[in-house]
Design brief:
2 domains; two-stranded parallel ribbon; Aspartate Aminotransferase, domain 2; binds pyridoxal-5'-phosphate
């Protein structure tokens, strides 16, 4: 069975060495030495100042909102994984959608500006599939209207924008290190925080709001990464450059062989790629459904990333209608992509994509 992703498992001997260390110390969670080591190494690898590791990408978003004490309304994209929106709702913030650009699939800054009201406190854009948003325009809007910016950068591991880590933009960027992601810690996530003063606060928030044995300064949650997850991250980090270059070859083969008429998201020209996803947009939903059926018959299971459009979520009131996102989400498919994807399987996928059905 060929799925859209396959979890990369790094060198087992290396992982066992870390597990031996954990068994020796008996320190399995609660800001352990491996979590700290991973924080240091990741900050260096990514080129960021402050990184706070947490239990998953969803809690990274939630802690970001709490660190910035957000309430009211936040403008966000309707074209993303559901956690971008649901994390706002569960924190009492109303998501106001601004539709996406049909070519880049990222939130369109003109639509952000149109949606601002006196209740708006923040913008939550997503670098979707690792494609960097229109950062300058978003920054200008945030400055003019005094809004916080939290980038859901779950797909943007390692991406550089104008030569610098894309994670350094906005007030906070968040990452997901779920097992399906390019870089993973089984389950995990991170906050990249620009303001040094907010880093400690985020650390307290992930640990029940506790500062030390005597002091609980914040209303926190439990979003700690454990040592087994950090060990996985340390092993992944040693292999990540190789993983990215293997994925690049697979993406290049798709690029070179899928039909020219297929719409592939238009990439930000000032940004690098990390080869995390290979999404293709068909001309109609019928064609997409037909291609899925043909692939399923060959035991290949691509994913409708991202479907449905988040403005259709039943729990969002008032109802909002985002035509571009709804249209794209019906026609977009993420093709299987992982380091050891067989060329023969890729050829089957490419033949189905290129056929005239
Ligand atoms: C864009 C986006 N935001 C948030 C998340 C949530 O991350 P996690 O699954 O680690 O909670 C994911 C992935 O799962 C995602 O793709």
């Amino acid at each position: 069975m060929i799925n859209v992703t396959k979890t990369y498992l790094p060198n087992i001997e290396k992982y066992k060495n870390y597990i031996d260390k954990i068994y020796k110390t008996g320190w399995v969670t609660n800001d352990g030495p491996l979590v700290r080591e991973l924080e240091e190494k990741l900050a260096k690898y990514l080129g960021v100042k402050n990184i706070v590791l947490v239990a998953n990408g969803t809690s990274a978003l939630e802690i970001a909102y709490r660190t910035l004490e957000l309430d009211g309304f936040a403008i966000t994209t309707p074209f993303s994984f559901v956690a971008t929106t649901s994390s706002l709702v569960t924190n009492g913030i109303l998501p106001i959608f601004a539709d996406i650009d049909k070519d880049t699939l990222c939130i369109e800054p003109k639509n952000i500006e149109k949606s601002i009201t006196p209740h708006t406190k923040a913008i939550v854009p997503v670098h979707i599939f690792g494609n960097v948003c229109d950062i300058e325009s978003i920054q200008n809007i945030a400055y003019e209207y005094n809004l916080k910016v939290i980038y859901d950068a779950s797909h943007a591991f390692g991406i550089k924008y104008k030569g610098e880590s894309v994670l350094n933009y906005g007030d906070i960027s968040t990452l997901s290190f779920h097992a399906t992601k390019l870089f993973h810690t089984i389950e995990g996530g991170a906050l990249i925080i620009n303001d040094d003063k907010l880093v400690e606060k985020a650390r307290y928030l992930r640990n029940f709001g506790i500062e030390n044995a005597e002091s609980i300064p914040e209303l926190g949650t439990n979003a700690k990464m454990n040592e087994f997850e950090a060990a996985m991250g340390l092993c992944m980090l040693d292999e990540i450059d190789n993983i990215i270059s293997e994925r690049k070859k697979i993406v290049q083969y798709y690029f070179d062989n899928t039909e020219q008429s297929l719409q592939i998201p238009k990439w930000n020209r000032d940004a690098t790629m990390n080869y995390g996803y290979f999404p293709v947009v068909f001309d109609t939903e019928d064609r997409l459904l037909n291609k899925i059926e043909l692939m399923n018959k060959k035991n290949i299971f691509p994913r409708r990333y991202f479907y449905p459009s988040l403005d259709t979520l039943h729990y969002i009131e008032p109802k909002q209608y985002m035509p571009v996102s709804r249209d794209i989400s019906k026609r977009i498919l993420a093709l299987p992509l992982y380091t050891d994807l067989d060329r023969e399987v890729q050829d089957i996928i490419i033949n189905i994509i290129n056929s005239n059905f």
